[in-house]
Write a structure and sequence with these properties.
CATH superfamily of the largest domain: PPM-type phosphatase domain
Oligomer: single chain
CATH architecture of the largest domain: 4-Layer Sandwich
Radius of gyration: 31 Å
Helix content: 25-40%
Shape: globular
Largest sheet: 7 strands, mixed
Strand content: 25-35%
């Protein structure tokens, strides 16, 4: 044990000297502690002992021995709090660590303390309070689960969703809505109205309808609208529109959801059928949750979530009515076996088991529902894996709409239904693949590299872009005391760039044997990428920076493929690294047969190196100014722990580029040599 531990009961409080009691009571009325940093002893009150489950003669010194009783993040937090108090002169020791009790349980505590300093200002004691906040932490996790559930639904409802202000101008929309209007992003739709897209006749009719909805505060559901465009054939949609009422009770505009039924309408006229389903996406926190609840309860579709036992745990009013219930709660803990025939329920459970096992959704399937005691019905159904905030599959969720009338009229047109299913399946598989690729880019843990005398410690920071991005990094452990590190940026965004990243990840594994040669490694990646791009018919380029650090030889190799050079902290100052021309080549995929070379330099004098992708340097503000390397140097020169430097650098980039309006990924990788 590092320091002695002394225990105090509440009823023995008088044994404390006056100033210790005053400090402890000022910090908290809960469990009280007093840490003597000079003697390395600590005093605990009886309540602290009850929190931790220890007897008086066995409790450890949790602060001095924090690495044995706290998780890594908590140890780092305590270290930082001590540094602020002891080195920066702060007057509050504040931290919320996760501590393992005697029974092996992990509990969260809110710890606050007041430092006592000697005449030279050195901290000699810290006294304060300790409160169990485990329930609050559990509640925060439950809230994260709920938000993940809502976001999952928003990302998969196959409909157009939008909000308009009182002048019928778009203030929010999902990506499918923007694409329907011929735009690339929802932001391009903002402040525009139907007059910018449809014929004046149709735009005026829609405006008058929305004005009536806002004035009467009465919405319309299942409305068939005939859309007349200026530059394309007419279309038809099924619309539901309701007044958008803010938290203050005032009408802020309208919100609507639409689904394209053009092919279905033409099928009635020409005996053909098709349907178009689109996925939606929305963001924001509290306002978003309110809007999402309105959407869930108002969309003319059945929405539900099931657990792994196929029991309903969440449902909207539409599906409750579909099953003959008055409230969604009447469905909870029930399954399809309580309503449908045995055969239909069995098939549905098999489909859901397959989705939970593989993670592959079932999109756009027309199902025939056979009931117990009433006529068969048909629905258009899409089912998806339901994942919690940690990515684990905990069940399934689905959306369905009644197509019984259409199926009864057009049940012989199976060829159209097959084309619809194939199209929707392709879209779902592409998006699913893109998401899986994006999530696999960032290493979860980066090992420390040591030769027994010195250690190379890596730190990372990755903030994802709104769209799929091609920014990624990789750390490749080599022999003892040697490590390779790669920073790469695939040009463009979206599924295409994500697929190229996936190709590069595979090539990195194949080139592992040449990872100790910086130039040879990039040459191998370029040859492999060129071969894959020729076979796939895709043209794209990727910039890369690759380095190899060798502690035994006290040197570093560097080779560049069209990528921005890292910022390096030397013993004599901080500046951007400038390798010689022979060590800088074109981007990967740009020149077939390119032979990349590397420069070898001494490691002596190098303290830190921070690599980044071009999106950090080229982030622009409202005036069109780039963030630039100069602003990066200002942040990095201030120093501090590497994680803090990367975090501050990312914050500065996002704030400079407009905060929530910043769309690019922030990808940073830093390393430093410590003894």
């Amino acid at each position: 044990m590092t320091g002695d531990v002394v225990f105090l009961e509440h009823n023995n409080m008088a044994s404390w000297n006056d100033d210790r009691l005053e400090l402890a009571l000022r910090a908290s009325r809960e469990g009280i502690w007093d840490w003597d940093l000079v003697e390395k002893t600590i005093h605990y009150s009886a309540r602290v002992l009850r929190f931790l489950g220890y007897k008086r003669d066995e409790v450890p010194h949790f602060f001095e021995e924090r690495a044995e009783h706290m998780d890594a993040d908590s140890v780092a937090a305590v270290d930082e709090a001590l540094r602020r108090v002891c080195q920066e002169g702060e007057d509050l020791f504040a931290v919320e660590p996760q501590v393992r009790t005697k029974k092996g349980e992990w509990k969260w505590f809110r710890v606050r303390g007041t430092p006592v300093r000697d005449e030279l200002g050195k901290v000699i004691r810290i006294a304060g309070s300790l409160i169990d906040i485990s329930k609050r932490k559990a509640a925060e996790k439950e809230l994260a689960e709920e938000r993940a559930l809502i976001q999952t639904l928003m990302d998969n409802i196959p409909m157009n969703v939008y909000f308009k202000d009182t002048a019928s101008r778009f203030v929010m929309a999902n990506l499918p809505t923007a694409q329907k209007m011929g735009l690339e992003t929802p932001e391009q739709l903002l402040d525009k109205s139907d007059y910018d897209f449809f014929l004046a006749e149709h735009a005026e009719k829609t405006r008058e309808l929305e004005r009536q909805i806002m004035e009467t505060r009465r919405g319309l559901a299942d409305l068939t609208e005939h859309e007349k465009w200026d530059d394309r054939p007419d279309t038809w949609v099924k619309s539901t529109k309701h007044p958008w009422v803010g938290s203050d009770g005032e009408v802020k505009g309208i919100f609507g959801v639409t689904s394209d039924v053009s092919e279905l309408m033409r099928a009635r006229e020409e005996q053909e059928q098709t349907a178009a389903e689109l996925h939606v996406r929305n963001s924001k926190i509290e306002e978003e949750r309110q809007r999402m609840r309105l959407i869930i309860d108002s969309v003319p579709m059945n929405v539900y979530f099931k657990n792994r036992d196929h029991q309903f745990v969440i449902a909207n009013h539409s599906i409750a009515r579909w099953f003959g219930c008055e409230k969604p709660e009447e469905l909870y803990e029930k399954s399809d076996r309580d309503f449908f025939s045995e055969e239909h329920a069995r098939i549905a459970e098999e489909d859901e088991n397959g989705i939970m096992e593989t993670g592959v959704p079932m999109v756009g399937r027309v199902e025939r529902e056979t009931w117990s005691g009433k006529n068969d019905t048909w629905v258009m159904t899409s089912k998806y894996p339901w994942r919690d905030s940690e990515g684990d599959i905990v069940g399934t969720f689905g959306v369905s709409s009644d197509v019984s009338e259409l199926m009864l009229a057009q049940r012989d047109l199976t060829d159209v239904a097959e084309r619809l299913q194939e199209k929707n399946q392709e879209m779902a598989e592409e998006l699913s693949l893109a998401r899986e690729v994006q999530l696999s880019l960032i290493p979860e843990e980066i090992p420390e590299i040591s030769d027994g005398k010195r250690t190379i410690k890596f730190s990372k920071l990755y903030q994802s872009a709104r769209d799929l991005a091609g920014d990624f990094f990789e750390v490749i452990p080599l022999a003892e005391g040697r490590v390779g590190f790669l920073m790469c940026d695939v040009a463009g965004q979206g599924v295409r760039s994500a697929l190229i990243v996936s190709m590069l990840r595979g090539l990195i594994e194949k080139q592992a044997e040449s990872a100790g040669d910086a130039g040879g490694f990039l040459t191998g990646l370029n040859e492999g990428l060129d071969h894959l791009l020729v076979e796939s018919g895709v043209g794209i380029r990727a910039s890369a920076f690759y380095g190899v650090v060798d502690l035994a030889k006290d040197e570093i190799q560097i080779s560049v493929a069209g990528h921005p050079n890292p910022v390096t902290v030397f013993s004599d100052g901080t500046r951007q690294l400038v390798p010689p021309d022979f060590a800088r080549g074109p981007a990967l995929g740009e020149n077939s047969g390119e032979k990349y070379q590397a420069v070898v330099a001494p490691l002596k004098g190098v303290r830190r190196m921070i690599c980044f992708t071009d999106g950090v340097r080229r982030a622009t503000n409202a005036m069109g100014e780039e963030f630039g390397v100069g602003r990066m140097l200002e942040v990095i020169e201030r120093g501090g722990p590497m994680e803090r430097v990367l975090d501050q650098l990312a914050r500065n980039v996002v704030e400079f580029a407009g905060g929530d309006d910043f769309k690019e990924a922030v990808c940073l990788l830093g390393w430093e040599v410590v003894k």
